[in-house]
Amino acid sequence: MTGQPDSGGGEDARRGGAAPRPAAATGRPRVPRQPGRPDVLTFGETMVALRGSGPLKLGGTMQVSIAGAESNVAIGLARLGHDVRWAGAVGEDEAGQLVLRTLRAEGVEVSGASADPGAPTGLLLFEPRLPEVTRVHYYRAGSAGSRLTAGVVERAFSAAPPRVLHLTGITPALSPTAHSAARHALQLAQDHGSLVCLDVNFRARLWTAEKAAGVLREWIPSVDVLIASDDELPLCLPEGAVGSGASGAAGSPNGSQGVEGAQGGEKAQETERAQEPEAAPQGAAHDTAATIASQAGLLLDLGVGEVVVKLGADGATAFTHGGSLHQPAKAVRAVDAVGAGDAFVAGYLSALLDDEEPAGCLERAVTTGAFAVASRGDWEGAPTRSELGMLGAPPGTVIR
Predict the structure, then answer these.
(1) How far apart are CA 227 and CA 216, in angstroms?
(2) What is the pLDDT of residue 92?
(3) Phi, psi torsion values for 341, nearest 5 degrees
(4) What is the DSSP letter of 109?
(5) In whole angstroms, what is the distance from residue 319 CA to residue 133 CA?
(6) Cα-based distances in Å from 396 to 59, 227, 385
(7) 180 CB neighbour count, 10 Å cutoff
(8) CB atoms within 10 A of CB 118
(9) What pTM did the predictor assign?
(10) How far apart are CA 388 and CA 188, in angstroms?
(11) Does the pLDDT of residue 50 top 70, yes or no?
(12) Which residues are catalytic?
């Protein structure tokens, strides 16, 4: 599948005469090639993460790390050799120093980050309850990350406009100032010709589906690459469109996570699962596929250059103006589904930065997602570029 020219020139008209988007000439997103610009800028809240070995009420030891959807993507991209910058706010505390130190150690540029002396760094607790069920507890109200302002984004773009701006639906849900920062970033991306990638990442504990839909629907005309699970797509559709009921969006407590690495990721308010969904009847599966294709088509008509739908153990599908392409998931032994969605995004963007067609983007995305599922932690299992081929090795392989 290759992108075709977008007939009719509708994109410029929808943008009020703004400069053409990267997708305008080819029918699918192409990353701008301006030299001297960082590959990707992303921003949001990154927290200190504590991982227990069992029920928290019983005590015991905990492993200390960091976690955040945007920084997970940044680390995944940096390991694949890309120039990535993360902007955000941490507390002026030891926890904030851990966040910045870890990102620096992983090759992520953090000069755009700020330390807030008036608020703490957020905290995240992971509580394994069953082999395939983990509870996640958040302590982020009033955190430094939730007080992110548009000034942070302004400084990041002034220092070096990125080729790609990566956003998630988490940041605008944190606070009115964080929402303003994300909206300002979209405008700056348009002004500087940056490609915009949006991962919906709906979080029901942060905001309602109705509020999320109101923001996402406003953003959609500015998005070049939209990444979402199948139950998140309705949040992005115009009100009244087929399957756009916000109350039904993200209705499954666990989205569409699966054990094979095509999707997953931090579900901020729900119990994390790494169990393969039961097979749907053939007719129901066909109806679901048809609904997803229809919804993706509507989003393409609204100006999105590429719609990527994560389907858990069923893989992922990319839709462009040139058609659609499905990629099965990579079969791996599931260890921890947390962070797999962010790893998927990192793989997809990495291939897009390398000018891969959708087939190559999907292949790398499900591969990086599988690495995450096969490893504990939000980002610790992210592969380097030289490791991408390891999934094809037969069981028992020893690399010497």
Answers:
(1) 12
(2) 97
(3) -65, -40
(4) B
(5) 32
(6) 36, 34, 22
(7) 15
(8) 9
(9) 0.84
(10) 34
(11) yes
(12) 342
